[in-house]
Amino acid sequence: MGRSVLVTGGNRGIGLAIAQRLAADGNSVTVTSRSGEPVEGLSVVKCDVRDAESVDAAFTEVEQAQGPVEVLVANAGITKDQLLALMKEDAFTDVLDTNLVGAYRVAKRAVRGMMKMRRGRMIFISSVVGLYGSGGQANYAASKAGLVGLARSLARELGSRGITANVVAPGFVESDMTAVLSEERKAQIIGAVPLGRYAAADEVAGAVAFLASPDGGYVTGAVIPVDGGLGMGH
Ligand code: NDP
């Protein structure tokens, strides 16, 4: 059996590409989804990252099936875009609760097992907009910037236990999340990206696979942009 990997929101989009890549690299991979519906070729557990009990139950199931989680990919995320003047408070707190507090919940549940094993990799999926900013996405950008502070603090806290914590910051990727953008907004985005295109989800998965691999063993507290140059390495 390969290393025990859990990818939150790995049932579709970027998370699915990450899960498939880590499985192809020889790991034992489980993905979470809120429905618990099967995903071809991967084990699935039901989990809502807004609920600590649901997170705990999902981890217990994974531990029984494939051992304590050694590689955690905190990928689950949502958007609720709106200009600040019009943004209701629950649009702000819902996005923070899923994207940032959800990442805290899964990291907290994973850390005990990793500390016992004295090894582990935590990889948080942020976004270019966390550091770049994005009009109409104050909630989302704040949640994604928060992941950087979370990961860097965990890198400091857990380094002595052989646990790394890193962030992957994708630019714009073809997925359900970006399918809702208008053609005008998509053209605007592509115009600002030096590589002049969206990323494929597999290109994000490649950076995650590196951080999870032996080659990534001395990398911690890093933010790896996979954004076609949009953030110029920030
Ligand atoms: P999708 O909208 O395609 O998928 C979102 C995933 O998150 C789904 O698997 C969904 O599960 C899961 N999810 C949402 N809410 C919860 C919750 N409360 N509990 C558990 N799982 C949840 O998004 P992408 O694949 O595009 O995005 C994946 C990650 O990458 C996100 O964190 C996103 O912010 C980030 N990202 C995306 C970019 C893009 O351009 N697409 C760019 C930069 C970052 P379910 O199927 O159950 O709803």
TrEMBL record:
One of its GO terms (molecular function) is oxidoreductase activity, acting on the CH-OH group of donors, NAD or NADP as acceptor. This is SDR family oxidoreductase. It comes from Trebonia kvetii. Residues 3-176 form the Ketoreductase domain. The lineage of its organism: Bacteria, Bacillati, Actinomycetota, Actinomycetes, Streptosporangiales. It holds the Pfam family adh_short_C2. One of its GO terms (biological process) is fatty acid elongation. Belongs to the short-chain dehydrogenases/reductases (SDR) family. It comes from the Bacteria. Keywords: Oxidoreductase.
